[in-house]
TrEMBL record:
It is a multi-pass membrane protein. InterPro entries: Tim23-like. GO terms for biological process: protein import into chloroplast stroma. It comes from Elaeis guineensis var. tenera (Oil palm). The keyword Cytoplasm does not apply. It is found in: Membrane. Its main location: membrane. The lineage of its organism: Eukaryota, Viridiplantae, Streptophyta, Embryophyta, Tracheophyta. It holds the Pfam family Tim17. GO terms for molecular function: amino acid transmembrane transporter activity. GO terms for cellular component: chloroplast outer membrane. This is Outer envelope pore protein 16, chloroplastic isoform X2. The gene is LOC105056941. Keywords: Membrane, Transmembrane, Transmembrane helix.
Amino acid sequence: MGNAFLNRTVDGFLKIGAVGASKVAAEETYDCLKKGKFSKDKLEDALRKICKEGVYWGTTAGVYVGMEYGVERMRGTKDWKNAMLGGAITGALISAASGHRTDKVIGNAITAGAIATAAEFINYLT
């Protein structure tokens, strides 16, 4: 698209959104096979869940990738601290947008920062 920030954000949204949608599709397929029932209502419900989860996962990934890239550009360096800060900002934003209280927002920011940092360290090992 010509803009590195936009390219990375959209790429993260699409890739991880597809993962989230695939996860729900697999769960719903298993549920139908297990129960032995399939109906138009069940299909509509499954499609609604697939779209909702795909958008949620994609949005979260897009925000994270965008935040990490923004932090990298502001700091002028590419290291694990960008992942930590990007994860913490993303965790806080998603949590606040979900209507959580301040203590929960802070906890989610810390958790997301820790997960992003751990993923970055694991990525360095491979």
